[in-house]
């Protein structure tokens, strides 16, 4: 079966940009687009050990009579396979349950707050909660539609970084786009990172399938990020630490999302890598 | 696994790996205390609110108070915490049966606030369903924090519900029984022990902080044979009252849904109407425990007509409060309606047969409560044990059992689904453990997929196809277009059997000509229940699963039976 | 503590791996999972399987596969084992069978007598003359324990005899087929009849060829058949 990407459609110009991004992703990946046109401003997602209520911004309910046609037109123009998702189960009469067995999900930076808040450095609390609980990676789109031509993986050596590298390799194999790895050197040496790669049996893949592995040695991570191509899809692992892990992601992740306007594909701690 | 995270995953500790029962007991204890405290908090704030608003009751505009309270509670639920109205117990049952008891954290307190606003301002509703929701959500979130699995989480959710009920009524057995009978729908030793511990903890919290008082203590009753006989009549009356209350609530819901106004305006209208009724019959206001106490101790004023009118007024007020968008439970109104009904019945038979030496009317009020609780919830044990515990009246247990049993049976006859389960049953969402619906809802199409079919091309000649048949173990051959791999049809061996033995056909026929081009197909996301219904309707034994015009595999009844039995055994047998 | 991959556990339980995943999530099975790796305690797992009357056989002790036999005997090998006899002089089918069995010296004396009886018994049931002058006599059930591997004794008759064959043509060659199991019997029978469908082969048989050239011919058929099967 093709991988599936879940998209909540917002029938506004902003929502159009987001859907275009999803359509592009599906077309490049050969994935199927599953569009949900919300009828209520809230829905529930039951994950393995968590239930998340998503309270959508009221703009998601804009002009429901045209929403389906708009979404279908965009998906058809992009020549991607698509379907509409109709919730089957309801926890309460106005509270549908949305299934969570997708392979990817597309979110703008915020789905529950006013879209005027959206900007670099801001990821809404519900989107964070989805990333924390989801078994699938979350595609956080740039504000305007921006096709990506290469893949950039940030590799920090953690278990989640390995998962995101595996995901990057998978994407690169499917799309044929070049994959670049970036590592900010901190307390470890190059050999340590290479050992992590070897321990996970990724030596050959990294040697043969990545175009480049850049190590940033200067200390300012923010400055170094200029090196990453503007049209790259950035893949990175999100893993929060300690008590505030439900509120903040790791510091690297926060830095990247506040500096880079690129499309981000975020791998949460519950993501199970598919080979 | 990092050591720092280990404490959040106690189910992985070596001690609990083989047997998790001690773990569930410890967590059940914690949950019982927490939900007991939540219940107590609601109880205390209701009292405080009642005291505070008491001074305004005699002004002419006091009828607005319940309206304002209901409107505020509706606004709070809708805008602040973004939850639906309603009491929440069906939500708990739904989550327990389908998602292993996962509940949102906000549910742990949202219903407490909204119920406090509705009831405290005088709306006719009870605080029990909200505390059940809170207790369950507290349990669910504590279980989530400790990364428990679904089965353990369901038990802990039950602990929360039991702790809350035990605490608010000071009734540990009723808490346990309610949880088993209504929330979980399953009696297993594995569940009972942690839930019993949570009940004890919840009760102990309540006793420690507000003393061990029996809510409706009463003088002892001496029951004669005549009284027992009269109980049968009482059961009929309570059953009728139960049906009336259930129907009134539901029809009121439909009426209010047709009013073109914001939810909070509707709640306001309903609340004000309750306020107006309250002018005439103050007994309908609030949770009404005060008036129950009067009735049980035989000090309720008024004659048979007043009592009967009060029954109808309370039913009306409750349906106005809950049906129009107020927040609260059905338990306390049940008790009030029940005791009023018992009282009215007693006064009626006393009028009819003044020569008989009837037991004091308080006893009938008490029996009426049991009858109504049993009838509405269709949970006879909950009714019996709750009344025994909140009245301290073990002496009346015999008529109590009689009334509960008859009332439940009669109600079941008229309304097959209880008040809590009605919506779930209508939507087909009631999945009690170990039932057919539950097993089928757990199994998915993808789990049953048989992928050992050999696919063939539509251009293949029958002669080549016979070679394929030789190699295959199956009788089904999906046909896929050669270039795109799209599913174009199905060949069933039994459909083409006549051609197989006719050598003339071997080269004359290609598969496209003999396949079934439009077979019934299944989508992998379909529910197994629907799949089976379709198979039964068309008398099929197997169907192809197709997604995006691609063949994925077959579903057959033979494999289904195999998996179904495994699933049933895994779900029902209690293992050590 | 045992460690196994998810799909191995699924195979050991004979369910799909998504079922195992769900059981773990629902806490129905004493296993915990990190990604694709399942960890479980062997004794707990055995007790669980027993109390639910399910089979759990991890790959350390794989269930013995009875479905696949050793590579099936080829026709040529069976013919080589059976040998070829020429110039059998007989007037009736019974006589021909008795003479042919007499020549099968690789069987002990007592065996040959029972074999002959069995063959005749089978003939009374229905003739084994398959047409075109060929008969394939065989016992109704495999002979117990003997021979150990299938044999085909080829016997050319000097003068064709009436076998009550399906096409009433007199039989000039008999293939006496003995095999230890029914499965092998069917396998060889189907291969033999494949060869006999070829008219050229029948003509070749009429020349009364010697063993090596017969085997060569048969091997040729078999390789063609095998390549068709594996296609």
The overall average pLDDT of chain A, rounded, is 85
Number of domain units of chain C: 2
Query: Structural class, from secondary structure content of chain A?
Result: alpha/beta
Oligomer: heterotrimer
Number of structural domains of chain A: 2
Structural class of chain C: alpha/beta
Q: Tell me the fraction of residues in β-strands of chain A, as a range.
A: 15-25%
What gap, in angstroms, lies between the N and C termini of chain A? 15 Å
CATH topology of the largest domain in chain A: Rossmann fold
Describe the structure.
The complex is a heterotrimer of chains A (275), B (576) and C (231). With 275 residues, chain A is α/β, with parallel strands linked by helices. Chain A has 8 helices and 14 strands. In chain A, strand 13, helix 8 and strand 14 form a beta-alpha-beta unit. Chain A is globular, with a radius of gyration of 18 Å. By secondary structure, chain B is mainly alpha-helical. The longest helix of chain B is centred in the first third of the chain and has 34 residues. Chain B has 26 helices and 4 strands. Chain B has 3 domains: 208 residues, Clc chloride channel (Orthogonal Bundle); 202 residues, Clc chloride channel; 134 residues, CBS-domain (Roll), CATH 3.10.580.10. In chain B, 64% of the residues lie in helices and 4% in strands. Chain C has 231 residues and is α/β, with parallel strands linked by helices. Chain C has 2 domains: 50 residues; 156 residues, Mannitol-specific EII, Chain A (3-Layer(aba) Sandwich). Helices cover 46% and strands 18% of the residues of chain C. In chain C, helix 1 crosses helix 2, helix 4 packs antiparallel against helix 9 and helix 5 packs antiparallel against helix 6. Chains B and C meet through helix 8, helix 21 and helix 26 of B and helix 2 and helix 3 of C.
């Amino acid at each position: 079966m093709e991988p599936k990407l879940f998209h909540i459609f917002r029938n506004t110009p902003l929502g159009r940009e987001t859907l275009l991004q999803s359509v592009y992703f599906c077309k490049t990946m050969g994935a199927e687009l599953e569009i949900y046109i919300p009828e209520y401003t809230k829905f529930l997602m039951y994950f393995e050990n968590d239930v998340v209520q998503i309270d959508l911004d009221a703009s998601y309910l804009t002009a429901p009579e045209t929403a389906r046609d708009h979404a279908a037109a965009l998906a058809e123009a992009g020549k991607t396979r698509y379907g509409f998702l109709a919730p089957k189960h309801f926890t309460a009469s106005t509270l549908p349950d949305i299934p969570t067995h997708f392979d990817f999900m597309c979110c703008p930076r915020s789905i529950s707050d006013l879209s005027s808040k959206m900007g670099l450095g801001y990821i809404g609390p519900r989107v964070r909660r989805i990333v924390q609980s989801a078994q699938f990676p979350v595609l956080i789109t740039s504000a305007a539609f921006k096709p990506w031509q290469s893949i950039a993986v940030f590799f920090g050596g953690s278990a989640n970084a390995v998962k995101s590298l595996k995901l990057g390799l998978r994407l690169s194999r499917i799309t044929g786009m070049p994959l670049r790895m970036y590592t900010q050197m901190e307390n470890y040496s190059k050999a340590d990172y290479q050992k992590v790669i070897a321990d996970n049996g990724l030596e050959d893949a990294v040697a043969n399938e990545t175009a480049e592995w850049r190590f940033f040695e200067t200390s300012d991570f923010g400055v170094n990020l200029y090196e990453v191509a503007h049209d790259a899809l950035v893949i990175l692992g999100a893993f929060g630490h300690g008590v505030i892990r439900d509120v903040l992601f790791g510091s690297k992740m926060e830095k990247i999302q506040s500096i880079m306007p690129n499309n981000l594909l975020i791998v949460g701690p519950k993501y199970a890598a598919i080979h | 696994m990092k050591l720092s995270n280990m404490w959040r995953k106690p189910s992985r500790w070596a001690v609990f790996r083989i047997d998790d029962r001690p773990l569930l007991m410890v967590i059940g204890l914690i949950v019982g205390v927490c939900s007991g405290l939540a219940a107590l908090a609601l109880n205390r704030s209701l009292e405080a609110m009642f005291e505070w608003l008491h001074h305004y009751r005699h002004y002419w505009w006091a009828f607005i108070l319940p309206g304002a309270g209901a409107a505020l509670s509706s606004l709070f639920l809708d805008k602040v915490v973004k939850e639906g109205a309603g009491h929440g117990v069906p939500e708990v049952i739904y989550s327990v049966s389908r998602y292993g008891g996962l509940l949102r954290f906000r549910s742990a307190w949202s219903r407490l606030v909204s119920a406090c606003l509705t009831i405290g301002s005088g709306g006719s509703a009870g605080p029990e369903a909200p505390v059940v929701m809170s207790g369950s959500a507290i349990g669910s979130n504590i279980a989530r924090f400790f990364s428990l699995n679904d089965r353990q989480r369901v038990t802990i959710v039950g602990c929360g519900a039991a702790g809350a009920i035990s605490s608010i009524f000071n009734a540990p057995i009723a808490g346990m029984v309610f949880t088993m009978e209504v929330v979980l729908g399953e009696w297993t030793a594995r569940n009972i022990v942690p839930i019993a511990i949570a009940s004890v903890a919840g009760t102990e919290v309540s006793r420690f902080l507000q003393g061990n008082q029996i809510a409706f203590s009463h003088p002892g009753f001496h029951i004669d044979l005549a009284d027992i006989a009269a109980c049968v009549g009482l059961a009929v009356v309570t059953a009728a009252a139960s049906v009336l209350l259930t129907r009134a609530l539901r029809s009121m819901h439909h009426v209010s849904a047709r009013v073109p106004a914001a939810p909070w305006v509707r709640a306001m209208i309903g609340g004000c109407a309750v306020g107006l009724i309250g002018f005439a019959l103050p007994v309908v206001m609030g949770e009404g425990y005060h008036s129950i106490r009067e009735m049980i101790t035989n000090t309720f004023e008024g004659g048979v007509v007043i009592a009967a009118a009060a029954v109808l007024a309370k039913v009306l007020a409750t349906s106005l409060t809950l049906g129009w968008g107020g927040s609260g439970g059905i338990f306390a109104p049940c008790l009030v309606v029940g005791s009023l009904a018992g009282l009215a019945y007693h006064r009626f038979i006393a009028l009819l047969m003044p020569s008989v030496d009837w037991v004091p009317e308080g006893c009938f009020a008490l029996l009426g409560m049991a009858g109504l609780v049993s009838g509405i919830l269709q949970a006879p044990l909950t009714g019996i044990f709750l009344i025994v515990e909140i009245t301290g009246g073990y002496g009346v247990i015999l008529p109590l059992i009689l009334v509960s049993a008859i009332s439940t049976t009669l109600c079941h006859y008229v309304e097959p689904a209880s008040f809590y389960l009605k919506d779930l049953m209508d939507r087909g969402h009631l999945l009690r453990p170990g039932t057919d619906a539950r097993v089928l809802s757990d199994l998915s199409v993808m789990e049953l997929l048989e992928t050992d079919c050999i696919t063939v091309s539509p251009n293949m000649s029958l002669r080549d196809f016979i070679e394929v048949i030789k190699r295959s173990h199956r009788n089904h051959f999906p046909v896929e277009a050669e270039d795109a791999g799209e599913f174009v049809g199905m060949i069933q061996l039994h459909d083409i059997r006549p051609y197989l033995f006719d050598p003339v056909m071997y080269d004359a026929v290609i598969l496209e000509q003999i396949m079934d081009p439009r077979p019934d197909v299944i989508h992998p996301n379909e529910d197994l229940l629907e799949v089976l219904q379709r198979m039964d309707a068309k008398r099929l034994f197997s169907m192809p699963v197709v997604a995006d015009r691609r063949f994925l595999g077959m579903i057959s009844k033979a494999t289904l039976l195999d998996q179904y039995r495994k699933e049933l055994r895994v779900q029902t047998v209690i293992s050590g | 503590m045992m460690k196994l991959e998810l799909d191995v556990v699924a195979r050991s339980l004979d369910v799909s791996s998504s079922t195992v995943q769900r059981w773990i999530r629902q806490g129905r099975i004493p296993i915990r999972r990190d990604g694709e790796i399942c960890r479980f305690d062997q004794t707990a797992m055995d007790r669980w399987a027993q109390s639910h009357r399910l089979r759990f056989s991890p790959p350390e002790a794989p269930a013995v596969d009875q479905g696949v036999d050793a590579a099936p005997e080829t026709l040529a090998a069976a013919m080589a084992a059976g040998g070829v006899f020429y110039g059998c002089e007989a007037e009736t089918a019974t006589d021909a069978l008795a003479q042919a069995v007499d020549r099968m010296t690789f069987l002990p004396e007592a065996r040959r007598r029972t074999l002959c009886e069995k063959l005749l018994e089978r003939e009374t049931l229905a003739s084994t003359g398959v047409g075109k002058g060929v008969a394939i006599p065989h016992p109704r059930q495999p002979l117990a324990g003997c021979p150990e591997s299938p044999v085909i004794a080829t016997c050319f008759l000097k003068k064709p005899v009436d076998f009550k064959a399906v096409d009433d043509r007199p039989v000039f060659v008999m293939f006496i087929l003995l095999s230890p199991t029914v499965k092998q019997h069917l396998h060889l029978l189907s291969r033999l009849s494949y060869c006999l469908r070829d008219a050229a082969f029948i003509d070749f048989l009429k020349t009364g060829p010697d063993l090596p050239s017969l085997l060569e011919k048969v091997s040729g058929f078999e390789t063609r058949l095998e390549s068709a099967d594996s296609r």
